[in-house]
Amino acid sequence: MSQPLTKQAAIERLEAYQERLETALKKDPRAHDEPFDEAPEGVGLHEIDLAKTSVTMLLVERHLRDASGEIVGIRTALTSIGA
Asked: How many domains does the chain have?
């Protein structure tokens, strides 16, 4: 990835991607796979669908660092919790 995005540009990029996914899902649930599999560069995505029920999730994220301490990625652990 080239230059880091500004916060506003990142929000706009993620919102546009979410809209693309929503549009595809409304059009045809099978059409949802294409934009899901073709996320924009630098964008990660995961979905959790538990039988169309709502679930409260706890996410804990950590930066992945190389030997020099530079951030090279992110790791997310998640689990469902009681409300």
From this structure: 1
